[in-house]
């Protein structure tokens, strides 16, 4: 009952959500977290799109070649433009697909294979790779 009363008054514990000071504090945290690096070409493209009225931008507009060498990579929904060290190049993706297929033959872990295939497809899309290998992955 005490928690409910505190919640109804607009706060949880000692955190009050309805003051301007708290709102400004949250806004400044988001500005810091969502800062875009101008040095990254994809980030630059996205930034210029935002300046021109938020037109849609596509990763295919900028050529990015990944440098990551890890065969396994968790799939993460992109919330910002990736850097080259977060994306695997095509040669590594070929090895990664073989690795995933071999793991499937050995363990038959469906969740693992699905996640890895999504991650491989994401790296293909980011680098705008559209060839026979991409067809094989899909």
* Biggest sheet layout: 2 strands, antiparallel
Q: Which structural class matches the secondary elements?
A: mainly alpha
List the uncertain runs: 1-16, 33-39
N-to-C CA distance: 54 Å
Mean pLDDT: 76
Which percent bin holds the helix content? Answer: 40-55%
Number of strands: 2
How are the strands of the biggest sheet laid out side by side? Answer: 1-2
Principal-axes shape call? elongated
Number of discrete helical segments: 6
Strand content: under 5%
Instruction: Give the C-alpha Rg.
Output: 21 Å
What does this entry look like structurally?
The chain is mostly helical and 138 residues long. The chain is 53% helix and 3% strand. The protein contains six helices and two strands, in the order αββααααα. A two-stranded antiparallel ribbon has the order 1-2. Helix 4 (90-107) packs antiparallel against helix 5. Mean pLDDT is 76; it is low at 1-16 and 33-39.
